Amino acid sequence: xxxxxxxxxxxxxxxxxxxxxxxxxxxxxxxxxxxxxxxxxxxxxxxxxxxxxxxxxxxxxxxxxxxxxxxxxxxxxxxxxxxxxxxxxxxxxxxxxxxxxxxxxxxxxxxxxxxxxxxxxxxxxxxxxxxxxxxxxxxxxxxxxxxx
Length: 148
Prior knowledge:
The chain is an alpha/beta fold and 148 residues long. It is 45% helix and 20% strand.
């Protein structure tokens, strides 16, 4: 049985709204979910991304995705914050389509929401392998291929 997803999709930065219709975002997230989830996805500009990263992670710069996870069981509950200008810049630098990079960052964030991490080398390898698997199932190329 496929996981159920309650999704709130918010665009504080509207530049990529047409690229991220609700049905696509939901499909990408569901592919990464192992159980039911209630997720809020917020697309932000650099100022909001930097403020959130600074205030909650003590890192004074905008980053691609922040995951604020609140519960894993019985339902995954989390906020995923994606910074549009950072994702756009990274996609260009990595030679990826913007759509592919958004899909990857949503998958990455959804895995974090379920307890996956990449602090230790073995954790990073396991998480990257899962990301590759999910992205391939969605029809995208290896998200780490350009960096390897």
